[in-house]
Design brief:
It is a single chain. This protein has about 160 residues and is of the alpha+beta class. Helices cover about 35% and strands about 15% of the residues. The chain contains 5 helices and 4 strands; from the N terminus they run ββααααβαβ. The strands form 2 sheets. A two-stranded antiparallel sheet has the order 1-2. A two-stranded parallel ribbon has the order 3-4. Helix 2 (about 65-80) runs parallel beside helix 4 (about 100-115) and helix 4 runs parallel beside helix 5. The radius of gyration is 18 Å and the shape is globular.
């Protein structure tokens, strides 16, 4: 029971094989509110459903973005059943990558994701910078944004 709502029996979502080759499945309870959001998303033609993981940005030993691995990782995630991916999703890239590097990451992921939606993470210290990144993400082919509030450094 969740509040006044009775939970449905556990539904198995996510499956595969562990390192020992044994099959596994992940049980997840479904709350009525979750079903309502899913129905609304379907009715509105919302492209963002199911699993869209925020992915890390890989780097080479020379401290450059590893675009080859990033593309491979994106293809693996989509091939494994993720319905889309979220690059630059607040895992530190907002503060560590410059604008051109962020655009290159988005172009790599959009190219590797095929028809799966790419939702760009937008994190910046200023509104102006965030808007520029959002515009560049749209031009790169991203189909959505996750916009974070400006980060703040206190001394």
């Amino acid at each position: 029971q969740f509040g006044e709502h009775e939970l449905e029996p556990l539904r198995l979502v996510g499956h595969g094989r562990d390192d020992g080759g044994r099959p596994f499945a992940t049980p997840v309870p479904r709350h009525p509110c979750t079903r309502a959001v899913a129905r609304f998303a379907l009715a509105m033609g919302h492209p963002f459903q199911h699993v869209l993981p925020a992915i890390t940005t890989p780097f080479t030993a020379a401290d450059h973005v590893d675009h080859e691995f990033l593309a491979h990782h994106t293809r693996c995630l989509v091939g494994a059943g993720c319905t889309g991916v979220i690059p630059l999703g607040s895992l530190g890239e907002g503060a560590t990558l410059d604008a051109d590097e962020k655009l290159e990451v988005l172009l790599t992921v959009v190219g590797a994701a095929g028809t799966a939606p790419v939702v760009a993470g937008v994190a910046a210290a200023s509104t102006r910078t965030a808007v520029r990144l959002a515009e560049r993400a749209a031009a790169a082919g991203c189909r959505g944004l996750i916009v974070l509030p400006p980060y703040l450094h206190q001394g």
